[in-house]
Specification:
The structure holds 2 protein chains of 2 kinds. Chain A is α/β, with parallel strands linked by helices. Chain A has 8 helices and 8 strands; from the N terminus they run H-E-H-E-H-E-H-H-E-E-E-H-E-H-E-H. By secondary structure, chain B is of the alpha/beta class. In chain B, 47% of the residues lie in helices and 17% in strands. Classes of the chains: A alpha/beta, B alpha/beta. Chain A: It comes from Bradyrhizobium betae.
Chain lengths: 198, 186
């Protein structure tokens, strides 16, 4: 939805700003497509997980990580189109209230990667209102880049899960994740301290 | 009422030898503590006892895909989980299995309460049931249909251990011969 009080930002720029703030080996789950391409382009970290399918599952996967490692902050980056596929997950997260989970929605109102078709929600629905209505009280639109960074800082010390929605432009992702699912998963597990490399 | 609920051994205690008691104990013995589920009538005693046991984190999800995402993330974070669902719920999972659990080599453990056979009264359920094994076979996923109480513990315990050590999903299909199934009374 066209929120007039929010600046149109750029996914890669916002993702880079987030990554620059991470100093404690926080986990980051990148949703399918451009969302994880820009996470990859922002600089690979061992605590990054890149989805190569399973559209809509960035938040559920991040929830699983958050429940497994309650002392680690877990970020999930998801597109608006992806989130629309799994809106029920917002209520599951609201019910479980993992305080270490931070959800970021990159909202351009389109399926950019398939040809920029508008999503059904584009002109009628408000992601933050949906999240709030799903029980996630700590949900906000980022007004601009500075506000985004402020909201991330706030979320990092919050006592409940947070959702930050960012209005972004229609640019494609900057990089392209190496499509090696086994290596992605294994490196992520090393990054989370679950396993040691051979 | 399901046959399982009429059986004298189907008690509520954690040490009982009902099908659901065996499943609960087998999960616990294998340190599987995260149990997201989409409910099913037949699974009700298992779900109830899982909720009652503080060893488990048991909760409903809106869709089965969501539950698969959650236990996949938990596995990567070092915590084991299993998903409970009905046959019709499994039918929603082909894309998630093919794009997450299988290619990322995640030991996804699924318990599927089988509807659609041995006395099904809903035509749609009987049709969707026929899609389950072809989908599992097309992805070469390990699956077992459990029909006998005396084989349940062996199959479940060995299959969970195999899933973990081979880093591959497994579906354990709980047949009406084991659980009593759902009959036309509700």
């Amino acid at each position: 939805m066209d929120n007039r009080n929010t600046k149109v930002m750029n996914r890669f720029d916002v993702t880079s700003r987030l990554i620059a703030k991470l100093k404690h080996e926080e986990a980051v789950i990148g949703g399918i497509g451009n969302t994880n391409f820009d996470l990859w382009a922002a600089g690979h970290r061992p605590q990054n997980f890149y989805m190569l399918g399973s559209m809509g599952l960035a938040f559920p996967i991040a929830l699983g990580v958050a429940l497994a490692q309650p002392d680690r902050r877990v970020f999930a980056l998801e597109g608006d189109g992806s989130l629309l596929m799994q809106l029920g997950a917002l209520s599951t997260i609201a019910m479980l209230k993992p305080k270490n989970l931070i959800m970021i929605v990159m909202d351009n109102g389109i399926y950019q990667i398939t040809g920029a078709q508008p999503t059904p929600a584009a002109n009628v629905a408000d992601i933050v209102a949906i999240a709030t209505g799903s029980g996630l009280a700590k949900s906000s639109w980022a007004a601009d880049e500075e506000d985004f960074e402020r909201l991330v800082d706030e979320a990092m010390s919050a006592g409940e899960p947070s959702l930050i929605a960012v209005r972004i432009d229609d640019k494609p992702g900057v990089g392209a994740t190496r499509r090696d699912p086994v290596q992605i998963r294994e490196r992520f597990m090393h990054g989370l301290g679950v396993r040691e490399p051979l | 009422m399901a046959i399982a609920e009429q059986q004298p051994q189907a008690g509520q205690g954690s040490g009982d030898r009902s099908w659901h008691g065996i499943v609960l104990q087998t999960l616990k013995r294998n340190e599987i503590s995260l149990i997201p589920y989409v409910p099913d009538r037949v699974l009700t005693p298992l779900i109830k006892n899982l909720h009652a046991d503080p060893f488990f984190t048991t909760f409903a999800t809106a869709r089965e895909e969501e539950a698969v995402g959650i236990v996949s993330g938990a596995w990567m974070g070092g915590r084991r989980g299993a998903v409970l669902m009905q046959t019709s719920g499994f039918a929603t999972l082909a894309n998630t299995l093919a794009s997450l659990a299988v290619p990322y080599q995640i030991p996804l453990i699924m318990f599927v309460s089988e509807r659609g056979t041995l006395g099904e009264f809903n035509y749609g359920q009987s049709l969707v049931c026929r899609t389950m094994r072809p989908v599992l076979d097309s992805l070469a996923l390990e699956h077992h249909t459990i029909t006998r109480l005396d084989e349940l513990e062996f199959i479940a315990d060995r299959s969970i251990k195999q899933a973990v050590t081979t880093q591959a999903p497994v579906a354990l299909i709980l047949n009406p011969l084991l659980t009593g199934g759902k009959t036309f009374d509700k």
